């Protein structure tokens, strides 16, 4: 059994804070310099920004501001994505601004960028986002966990024949073959003389998709079945907890950052095992 504090510590270990987690560029600089603390970072950052080390220390300590040019060079030094760069530069502009109306205007733009960053469809890499499901095949694909399980099992060399797939999923071989033929006809798998081989179909259902609820229910139901098996190396966790609004936002960002880290490790990983990650975090 994993308690709440242990679960939070796991997320903290797996997730490094991003610029979107901050409402002040100075606090972000302080975090990167004094908390993350990469060796020689102040000197390297000062050189990249084109300023003296003592000046950068004053920026971190909230005595002076970065110029827009210096801020842009800092973004390049840390190899920010376009959205990260825009967010950081907006933070600098807002903290430098003397006019309240202009600061409020920049705050609206910052909020829009943060909302975009938290949209999972913007974070899932190398997956096609499906927004309009008018395909009969896709309706079948997301009607049961069986389709996606068989689909992705074919990416594992030891599960590229119908008998092994049927044994792994406790399904009849006849049912497995029917699904494999359906997948092949829609170019999700390919067939050679002996094996069924994964071909394509890494989709992401948009939040507005009418198939999303079905897909979520299918795999949560499958998780409930798995929980009854009491496998020692499987993890099932559920928590109901009251917390502050600010901590809710922080924990949500930790989870989003964890999903980024998860994808970076999972996407290039060799296909050796099929897993399912179900994660829910919502206001009750």
Which key features would you list for this structure?
284 residues, two-stranded parallel sheet, disordered N terminus, 434 Repressor (Amino-terminal Domain), mainly alpha, two-stranded antiparallel ribbon, Arc Repressor Mutant, subunit A, 4 strands
What does this structure look like?
Helix 5 packs antiparallel against helix 6 and helix 6 runs antiparallel to helix 7 (about 100-120). Strands 1-4 form a two-stranded parallel sheet. A two-stranded antiparallel ribbon has the order 2-3. It has helices spanning about 5-15, 25-35, 40-50, 55-60, 70-75, 80-95, 100-120, 120-125, 135-140, 145-155, 160-170, 175-185, 210-230, 245-265, and strands at about 130, 190, 195-200, 205. The longest helix is centred in the last third of the chain and has 22 residues, at about 245-265. It folds into two domains: about 15-120, 434 Repressor (Amino-terminal Domain); about 130-235, Winged helix-like DNA-binding domain superfamily/Winged helix DNA-binding domain (Arc Repressor Mutant, subunit A). It is mainly alpha-helical and about 280 residues long. Strand 2 and strand 3 (about 195-200) form a beta hairpin. The radius of gyration is 24 Å and the shape is elongated.
Quick structural summary:
It is built from 14 helices and four strands.
């Amino acid at each position: 059994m994993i308690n709440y504090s242990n679960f939070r510590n796991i997320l903290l270990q797996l997730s490094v804070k991003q610029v979107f987690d901050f409402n002040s560029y100075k606090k972000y600089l302080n975090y990167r310099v004094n908390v993350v603390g990469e060796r020689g970072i102040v000197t390297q950052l000062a050189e990249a920004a084109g300023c003296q080390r003592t000046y950068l220390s004053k920026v971190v300590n909230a005595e002076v501001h970065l110029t827009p040019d210096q801020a842009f060079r800092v973004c390049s030094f840390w190899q920010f994505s376009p959205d990260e760069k825009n967010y950081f530069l907006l933070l600098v502009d807002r903290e430098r601004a003397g006019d309240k109306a202009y600061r409020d205007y920049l705050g609206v733009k910052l909020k829009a960028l943060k909302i975009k960053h938290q949209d999972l469809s913007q974070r899932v890499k190398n997956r096609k986002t499906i927004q309009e499901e008018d395909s009969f095949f896709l309706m079948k694909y997301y009607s049961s966990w069986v389709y996606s399980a068989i689909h992705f099992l074919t990416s594992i060399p030891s599960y590229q024949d119908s008998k092994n797939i049927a044994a792994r999923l406790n399904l009849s071989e006849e049912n497995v073959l029917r699904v494999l033929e359906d997948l092949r006809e829609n170019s999700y798998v390919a067939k050679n003389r002996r094996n069924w081989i994964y071909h394509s179909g890494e989709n992401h259902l948009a939040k507005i998709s009418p198939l999303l609820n079905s897909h979520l229910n299918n795999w949560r139901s499958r998780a409930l079945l798995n929980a009854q098996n009491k496998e020692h190396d499987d993890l099932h966790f559920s928590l109901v907890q009251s917390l502050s609004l600010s901590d809710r936002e922080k924990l949500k960002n930790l989870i989003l950052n964890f999903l980024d880290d998860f994808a970076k490790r999972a996407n290039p990983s060799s296909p050796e095992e099929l897993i399912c990650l179900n994660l829910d975090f919502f206001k009750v």
